[in-house]
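Hi everyone, sorry if this is the wrong subforum. Our group has a chain we'd like a structural model of before ordering constructs, and none of us has done structure prediction before. Sequence below.
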Amino acid sequence: MNRGEIYFVSIPYNTGHEIAKDHPAVIVGVPQSAYEKCVVQVVFCTAAEKPDLPEFIPITGTARPSVAMCRHVYTVDISRLGYCIGHCTPDELAAIDRELAVTFGLANPAEPNAAAEPVPQPPAMDYKTLYEDLLDRILGRKGA
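Answer:
Right subforum, don't worry. Here is the predicted structure as tokens:
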């Protein structure tokens, strides 16, 4: 199994807005450690007509013209993978990667090659400090 290969994936059940039946899927993540070798990350594909949005990447590696739905990223056990039905071209895989970066907030959609600004994080506090601060506020020893 390699990135860019397209497998038929078995989906025995779904919940809410999840994919509802077996679909082809592009492998986008192959684990590097032996511990995780039993799962892969996939982006599901569909031959159904979809609006012309950046999250739907046209691919040619399936029997019918399809789109990779980059908002439907799943980690699946390799036992769900059926047979390999095709491969994405390098350009298609690069387009999927760019859209996944946007989906996960790693890039600015206006600038596909730019990394997103880091989100400022509050200073780290341990539980003891948080507890003491809360206790001080409850007892009126510090301003709120």
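For your construct planning: The first strand starts at residue 5 and ends at 9. The mean pLDDT is 80.
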